[in-house]
Amino acid sequence: MNRGLEQMRRLAVVLAGFALTSCGAREQPTPAPETGKKILMAHYMPWYMTPAIRGEWGGHWTGFETKHHPDQTTTNGLPDIWSNYHPLIGLYDSTDPDVLECHLLQMKLAGIDGVIPDWYGISDTADYPAIHKATSALFDACGKFGMKFAVSYEDRSVQLLIDWKKLQRDQITNHLAETMQWLQKEWFTKPQYLQYRGRPLFLNFGPIYLTDRAVWDAAFKTIPNRPSFYALHHLWKKAGGDGGFTWIHWDPWEGTPTEARIRERIREVFTYFSTNRDEVIVSAYPGFDDVYAQHQRPLDYRGGKTLQETLEVGMEGQWPLIQLVTWNDYGEGTMIEPTHEFGYTFLEIIQQARRKELGRVFTFTAEDLRLPSRLYALRKKGNVPAAELDRISQLLNKGACSEARTLLDAQERT
User: Fold this and answer.
1) Rounded Cα distance, 183 and 202, in Å
2) For labelling, which of 33, 57, 101, 181 has a CA lying 20 to 30 Å from the CA of 19?
3) CA 52 → CA 22, 48, 58, 93, 144, distances in Å?
4) Alpha carbons 212 and 237: distance in angstroms, whole number
5) Distances (CA, A) of 188 to 180, 196, 258
6) Nearest to residue 208, comparing CAs of 280, 158, 167, 270?
7) Cα separation of 210 and 212, whole Å?
């Protein structure tokens, strides 16, 4: 059932992205660029399940309408899953601490600052508890590995509660207020939660259902500190947000544009709804190739150039924060984590962009990106003392890649 909501959510945004560059930007002065390091946050899907960890395959591997069989392989020798792409470390469970360790270390060595998980709140309906459990595990892992965390809330989860008669319409404001109070108590005040413009960053993938800004304002008033509130680029004003964030857009590559024109169009997408940098969170993405029943046209990965162009325009522009879309949405094919199909191409592009920004102080290499998956493989092999693997993890976490590589080499020979 949750997959149906997820498809509608994504399709609404996909369709909204087609004609963005035809919209006129508001005329206002553009602030001067900030000096300092860009914030790179990876949008993260915490919804994968495996029998080894939680007793069954989750729908995001098997599919919801059309069933796939992850225990079986297809003609290419890879698992039969609801995706055109396959994670290089194998199919995983989003609550597995070994997976979270691998992912966060890969991000850190690529120059990514943290994660923005797709989160459905704290209710006990549908698969929301499973997603919340995985999101909480990710939050804790971010604290362990020194990574930042901020949520992207799905307000359409409230619609499901109404449809399933788990919530009455006159209870919506209280429900949202309780959600904000939980966030304030459990996450907003913790060191790993990303503070953006002096307040905790809170994204809404909408507003798709909660379109009355009075509901949002009332909920925010029940906590001590209103978060920095960003919603989708074309919808944020409905919710009274501080700004909007872009998503996947096809416009820059329509026709046969030159490289210069592509970059100009990307900048147009990033500024069409506001030229005030504080009101805009831009996105960088590798491509799009979904497996939905209502299939959308693909956006070509172009050997990594699509990610390179969107990321470089973001890095060169005035915007302090770039959302990487996404770490691991296999249903839509927007994953930047290493895959069988693309290898480490996307992480290497991000790493190169960070090195260009920071210069010689950023010392991680493409080879370093391979170390976390080697650690993950040893953890799953099961014959290496946990203390030794923990030592390697700690070395990677503090950037001592040469020492970690030496220890990994030794353990792999045994």
Assistant:
1) 10
2) 33
3) 49, 12, 12, 8, 24
4) 10
5) 9, 11, 44
6) 158
7) 6
Contacts of 395 (CB under 8 A, 6+ apart): 401, 403, 404, 407
**Burial classification of residue 10, based on how many CB atoms lie within 10 Å of its CB (0-12 exposed, 13-18 middle, 19 or more buried):** buried
* DSSP letter, residue 231: E
Q: With beta carbons less than 8 A apart as the criterion, state whether 30 and 318 touch.
A: yes
Q: Cα 84–87–92 angle (5° rounding)?
A: 115
* Sign of the Cα pseudo-torsion (171, 127, 129, 141, in order): negative
| Angle at CA of residue 125, ends 247 and 233, nearest 5° | 15
pLDDT tens digits for 123-148? 999 999 999 999 999 999 999 999 99
Q: Are 322 and 34 spatial neighbours (Cβ–Cβ below 8 Å)?
A: no
Neighbours of 59 (CB within 10 A): 21
Mind listing the domains of the chain with CATH numbers? 2-362 (3.20.20.80)
Spatial contact of 289 and 250, defined as CB atoms under 8 Å apart:
no
In a 10 Å sphere around its CB, with 0-12 CB exposed, 13-18 middle and 19+ buried, how is residue 182 labelled?
Answer: middle
Q: How far apart are CA 265 and CA 86, in angstroms?
A: 31
Both structure tokens of 101: 């360790």
Any idea which residue has 């194998």 for tokens?
90
Cis peptide before 345 (omega within 30 of 0): no
Backbone angles phi, psi at 98, to 5 degrees: -65, -40
Whole-angstrom distance, CA of residue 202 vs CA of residue 180: 10
Rounded to 5°, angle at Cα 43 from 366 and 125: 140
Residues 245 and 203 sit within 8 Å (Cβ to Cβ) = yes
- Specify whether the CB–CB gap between 349 and 29 falls below 8 A: no
pLDDT digits (tens, 9 = 90+) for 188-222: 999 999 999 999 999 999 999 999 999 999 999 99
* Helices 345-358 & 97-110 angle (0-180, nearest 10): 40
Q: Which residue has the higher pLDDT, 270 or 67?
A: 270
Whole-structure pTM over 0.90, yes or no? Answer: yes
